[in-house]
Amino acid sequence: MADKVIYAMYGDDDVLKDGAKKLVSKGVKIAEVFSPFPIHGIDPIIGVKNTRLGIMAFLYGLTGLALATIGMRYFMVGDWPMNIGGKPNFTYLDNILAFIPISFEFTVLCAAHGMAITYLIVNRTLPGMPASNPDPRTTDDKFVMELRMSENAGFSESELEGMLKDTGMIELDQKEVK
Amino acid sequence: MLTVILMGVGFLFTLIGVFMNMNDDHFITRFLSNFLVDSFFFFSIGLGALFFLALQYATETGWYATVKRVIEGLTGYLPYGILTMVIVLLTLTFMHGDHIYIWMNPDYYSESGHHYDKIIAGKRPYLNEIFFWIRTIAYLGIYYMFYLGFKKRSLEEDRVGGTDIHFRNYRKGALFLVFFAVFSSTSTWDWIMSIDVHWFSTLFGWYVFAGMWCTTMTVLVILVLYLKKQGYLPKVNDSHIHDIGKWTFATSFLWSYMFFSQFMLIWYANIPEEATYFITRIEEFKVLYFGMFFVNFAFPMLILMSRDAKRNARILTLVGILIIAGHWTDVWIMISGGSLGANAHIGWMEIGMALLFAGVFIRIVLTKLTKAPLTPVNHPFLDESIHHDI
């Protein structure tokens, strides 16, 4: 479905934040904000949900813990019982103290890598992926707010542009997307 | 009211404990061990608060400004904590250690003694009453001086404003941390590690320090929640409580890390003179010792992991009270496990004295809180703290 996207550019993050507040209070839905740095407090204004990355981190950590336990159980106890310093090696539990540091490290490794890779995939910013920001200046010192016509069916294009102009933006652009 | 009940119940339990065990051979040792446990435990909460305050000064932290007075209220127990420490250490010195500090007893260190012990005699240059008291007075005196200075400047800031006091606090806070870095280790060696006089562990000071920090953060979060519920801290929002909850969570991990590091290294090396400490603890207090580790590690880890839990007053209070009990047990096993060994157990007297001290502690802290405005007036980061949002 063809859709029309309006981009409004701002020179200051506080102006953008105040503008977003005004627009949202009038019932406008803001699809996205592009910014060179995280704008504190913008998430609740434009209705971005809390991240679920923490839950994924926990699951990745559990995966790491399970893998480490299975691996060490097999290498050090099952396949070939290792005698290190005469420590008990008949069962995993007898020697569990020696395995805890590795379990911990592997948990952290899996959680950290899993989290970083998930983050890059969800944001579509893996190395080599095409950039999705509408204007290269949003990586420098400009801020862009994106509105989608399909999400703002209650407003006409000129109405939206009129409201945007009242919020102190410095540039307006629009694009047809598929 | 609560504090009066706590003190009353504590006193009653202590009396029951005293009458039940009066004819016991170990009665005096047991009583003094308990006195030392509770003196040290509550003293360490006040000291932990002083350390935390100095840490905020030295790092020029902003978010804590609205809870600053609560931290200072906790440091208000410090003079009384110092007093109880001095009383119990003086009593022990006059009683030649009374099985708690056996290195104070000439029977152990002089060659003509019945229990002459070469190792204790060899430690005489460090572990003797005079040097012990020089060090103890240095620790307590310097802590007390910093406490007075922090208190004076904090109240002065309310009147004067400006940033001069802030930068003075910054320098004094950093200076305190320098002293504390050394003293937190050595004071623990003197007061607690010397009970197991043959045993030594370089990690022990940090271990006790981590437990102390964790207890302080837990007490702080409960106190802030209580005061907020009573409506005394209108400027404190969920983010502040979340942050203190994070401190509780993080310091619990720090403590567990220290516990495990010390335990695993000694277990792996398996050198008799080091392993003896854990052999006593595990043989005599297996359930308490590992139960205490489980409570202090697993509860905060599993329950306080999520963001919502750290913002929930009920969960924080419940976990907090469990952790405080866990850390008290930790201190009790460290001290009574060393002085009484197999004869130590938690009975009326232990619980009673802990409740009595807790009642006095809460009463003093709450009284101290009334002495100054609960929100600092001219703190340079006050505005930042009011808008704290994470």
Number of strands of chain A: 4
Oligomeric nature of the chains: heterodimer
Number of strands of chain B: 0
Strand content of chain A: 5-15%
Query: Which word captures the global form of chain B?
Result: globular
List the secondary-structure elements of chain A in sequence, H or E: EHEHHHEHE
Shape of chain A: rod-shaped
Number of helices of chain B: 15
First-residue to last-residue Cα separation of chain B:
36 Å
Mean pLDDT of chain B: 91
Radius of gyration of chain A: 25 Å
Number of helices of chain A: 5
The overall number of domains of chain A is 2
Q: What's the overall average pLDDT of chain A, rounded?
A: 87
Widest β-sheet, arrangement of strands of chain A:
2-3-1-4
Based on CA atoms alone, the radius of gyration of chain B comes out at 21 Å
If you had to describe this structure to a student in words, what would you say it looks like?
The complex is a heterodimer of chains A (178) and B (390). Chain A has 178 residues and is of the alpha+beta class. Helices cover 46% and strands 15% of the residues of chain A. Chain A has two domains: 3-50 and 147-177, no CATH class; 53-122, no CATH class. Chain A has five helices and four strands. In chain A, helix 3 (53-79) packs antiparallel against helix 4. Chain A is rod-shaped, with a radius of gyration of 25 Å. The N and C termini of chain A lie close together (6 Å). Chain B has helices at 2-21, 27-58, 68-75, 78-94, 106-109, 118-122, 129-160, 164-191, 204-229, 238-269, 272-284, 286-303, 313-339, 348-369, 382-386. The two termini of chain B are 36 Å apart. Chain B is 74% helix and 0% strand. Classes of the chains: A alpha+beta (178), B mainly alpha (390). At the A-B interface, helix 4 of A face helix 10 of B.
